[in-house]
Amino acid sequence: MPKAKRIFIVGDTKDFTGKLLLIDLRRRVKGLIRLGHDVQVFSYNTAFWQLAPIKSKLLTRKWCKPLVDELLEKQLRNYNPDIVQITFANFLDVKTIELIRQAAPNAFLYGIDGDPWPQFHKGRVEAGSKLDLVLVTNNGEWLDEYRKAGVRGAFLPNPCDPDYEYRHEVSDKWKTDILFTGKTRQTSKRYPTDPMRHQIISKLAKMKNVTYYGCLGSPKIGGMDYHYAISGARIAMSINIANDVSLYHSDRLTNYLASGTLVLAKRVPDSDMLFKDGVHLKYFDTADEFFELSDWYLKHEDERLKIANAGMKHVHEEFNCEKIAKYTMDIIEKGTYDAPWCGCL
Question: How many CB atoms lie within 10 A of CB 287?
Fold first, then answer.
């Protein structure tokens, strides 16, 4: 049996938000523990707010960062990790990475970045360049930003957790024909949101028996309610803010598939390597095609349920947190990992 590693994770656990069950970090920790490793989590952002006398981002960064970094250094020296995982929490920068190197000089340092356009996040690519490896959820230009900075980078998809991400039996409160969760577009002009996203959501908002959260004035949804909402939807629409980057899907797609709804997803390059069209989900290329597909599957329940069940089974088997953790450890220890989609990497 391989020797268990001590893995120290620096990230943001979202302790004060409804995202507690939704964050990628939670699934990755669970997967590593199930592989037999010892995992210690340091919530970088939580430490800031616990130490801050005034809840202000500007003042917190100025006054508390030295205190948080000092606490982080002490924890690292006490734990003496074999591996350190960085999830690019707010306020974490190059100086923090340098401190981690000093406190854990023999540890392998890697980062995980599921966000688009890392170059638009202040200091992120620079911080990533100081690591031994960065794992990202795309195989295109955003991964290349890290490679150009001189760090080894690799694609790794979002994990799911079948322990609570599955099709729940829900009351009529949650039942709907079509569901979408998220913004219609990004607020910052730096992010060129695919206009089709706003086009489809705006039309859905005028239709009957359609539910949406987090956009057009509707409240956000989190916790188990998020999974109940997906479970109650016959169809869920997945469209990224950008759909021209190889293999990139937000974790929304994995969440939808894992909770057992039929997913209609905007096609992205090479996506069929992850999920087969007509088997695990249905892809669309235009807004008109989305509405044609949704209309057809709402009228053909057996076909809808067949694909929804296959998609849920596939993501539970191939993208569960333990399997993604195994891929992570393989690429750290062996330099590569073996997965069905590796042929396109």
Answer: 17
pLDDT of the chain, 345 residues: tens digit per residue: 468 999 999 998 877 666 777 888 999 999 999 999 999 999 998 888 787 766 666 666 667 888 999 999 999 999 999 999 999 988 899 999 999 999 999 999 999 999 999 999 999 999 999 999 999 999 999 999 999 999 999 999 999 999 999 999 999 999 999 999 998 877 666 777 889 999 999 999 999 999 999 998 899 999 999 999 999 999 999 999 999 999 999 999 999 999 999 999 999 999 999 999 999 999 999 999 999 999 999 999 999 999 999 999 999 999 999 999 999 999 999 999 999 887 544
Domains and CATH numbers, the chain: 6-159+321-337 (3.40.50.11010), 172-318 (3.40.50.2000)
Query: Of 31, 47, 111, 40, nearest to 81 (Cα)?
Result: 40
pTM: 0.93
The number of beta carbons lying within 10 Å of the beta carbon of residue 138 is 26
Question: d(Cα 38, Cα 29) in Å, to the nearest integer?
Answer: 9
Count of all residues that appear for the chain in the document? 345
| Number of Cα atoms under 13 Å in the Cβ half of residue 107 | 27
Assess contact for 42 and 72: CB atoms under 8 A.
yes
Give the residue from 45, 76, 74 showing the smallest Cα distance to 61: 45
- For 190-214, letters b (16+ CB in 10 Å) and e give eeebbebbbebbeebeeeeebbbbe
